[in-house]
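Hey, why these numbers?
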Amino acid sequence: MSATQILLLAIAGIGSLAILSIISIAWRRGTDPPGIKTQDSAAVRQDLAAEDKADEDDSVTAYDVAELVSVDSAPTDPLVDRQEVDAETMGVTRRQFFNRGLLGVFGLFLAQFGIASLAFLWPRLKSGGFGSKVNVGKIEDLRIAALTADGRARPVFVSAAQAYVVPVQGSLDGSSFEGLPVVAGGMMALWQRCVHLGCRVPECESSQGFECPCHGSKYNFHGEYEDGPAPRNLDRFVVSLNDADELIIDTGDVIETARASFKTIEYPQGPSCI
């Protein structure tokens, strides 16, 4: 089951629990208003009989009328004759019901927001996706694709890794990334993100570099800083070769390097693109 399916099931479960809670609170209120008693039907019939007899005999005396009215039907003081009602019988008031309903809806919103935030921040470690190791393919095929017919560099963009695979031209001795695990089979993998403000940096084949259209930062095809507001070189990923001689880019392992003290490749080699 994928992470997206788990998230949808969790949201559906929480929503169902909230709806059941609201229905349960409403059901406990009952249909009859609490504390209201129904009138005694026997007393009502007795009062009506007394009124009918008084209408039939206008000469009836006050004493006779008193005899017609039963002692049991005499009015009583509601404060004296009241009955205590426990909290369970009383239920909840309308104010309490709406307050609990609002709290339930607000709690459901917070739960959904928390789950969505967690899903957004959780690293996506699915096989072959960004954040994991990406198999780019045969190193020989990459070497051919990364060079033009006249021997100029032509970066291969790998969307799954958000990286440019570039050939290493010349020696890296004394460079800012000497000794780091960023070269395998003569190839490097540079993150497409500009280290200034995160724009995607396109390649510029004419100048043999990467040039950011957002704020003018420039790098050579080894990702070394050349110009603009960028504070360092382009970030690069750890790379390796597997047993099948395929290039593996570990996008979960990013290496940062400071601006190069000297450059390992010439830049620019032609007109700039920005």
User: Anything to note?
Assistant: Confidence is low (pLDDT under 50) at residues 31-38. Residues 94-121 form the longest helix (28 residues). The chain has six helices and ten strands.
